[in-house]
Amino acid sequence: MGQAASSSSSAIAGTLVLANLGTPTAPTAPAVRRYLAEFLSDPRVVAIPRLLWQPLLRGVILPLRGPKSAEKYAKVWLEGGSPLAVYTIGLAAQVQALLPHWRVVPAMRYGEPSLRALLQQARDEDGLVRMLPLYPQYSTTTTASMQDVARAVNPAAPDARLQWVEDYSDDPDWIAAVAESIAHWRARHGAGAHLLFSFHGLPQRVANNGDPYPQRCERSAALIAQALGLGEGEWTLTYQSRFGRERWLEPATDTELAALAARGVTQVDVVCPGFAVDCLETLEEVGMQFAEGFAHAGGTLRYIPCLNDAPAHARALVAMLERQFGPMRA
């Protein structure tokens, strides 16, 4: 049932799904348009009424964004596919090695391998499924969208056979893994004058309507900074990836970088703990776009990679899962 499965079916305790956002299948305009059409048609992502939004999306936005986004994907594409897909599949394999009595599979909310198809198959097989959305900080735009898919596949009352991790923004093992990754990177490369935590942004309207995402990001950043022994003036939290004209969460990453440069800070390390694995937003937006802008202001931006498919990431996730669900290793 999955690329990372290797255990005998007679010993399987259930299916563990590591679900990520999704990615195009190729760095081409048609593939990117197909992916963006699905992603931007989710009402959790864009709340504009469908009758108004779909003509604008398909007639204007996709034709314009498809080729431009394809060029960006081409800059970060790996031999095995997009970074998000390669690292998500690799992480599932690392978790599978720690949980041989579980079937561990990667899935995507948008694109392939399809979360909807996987949940339909799991429903038909009538087995226990545990869902781990690879979004450390819960949001109605991410984890809740995956839960929408689950409800659509099985509209009956909540089923004990489908169990969720909704948030692990302050999980101690995950916090420790991120902090150790940052510390090891800075030990090898030297510590920049400032550490910036850049999270994916949300429209301010979503937060005003009760989405707890900003508070979860603040909690994560504060705990990671504490684990690193950083003082208040040594780090900053920002938000990236704005889209459209409405107000988004602030401070914006590019704006804050400009402010740091204006204050004479010439070397900034950037980490993105809202992303479980590296993707277009971390590698191209931060590691290329923002780095170039900061260089033009006279500074050096150094991007610290996500945990990706490192064994330490898998160990932290398994410890978190066992803290929530009880022992999973026989």
From TrEMBL:
It is found in: Cytoplasm. Its EC number is 4.98.1.1. Pathway: Porphyrin-containing compound metabolism; protoheme biosynthesis; protoheme from protoporphyrin-IX: step 1/1. Keywords: Cytoplasm, Heme biosynthesis, Iron, Lyase, Metal-binding, Porphyrin biosynthesis. InterPro entries: Ferrochelatase, Ferrochelatase_AS, Ferrochelatase_C, Ferrochelatase_N. GO terms for molecular function: lyase activity. Fe(2+) binds at H200, E281. It is an enzyme of class 4 (lyase). Pfam families: Ferrochelatase (PF00762). The keyword Lyase applies. Catalyzes the ferrous insertion into protoporphyrin IX. Belongs to the ferrochelatase family. This is Ferrochelatase. The gene is hemH.
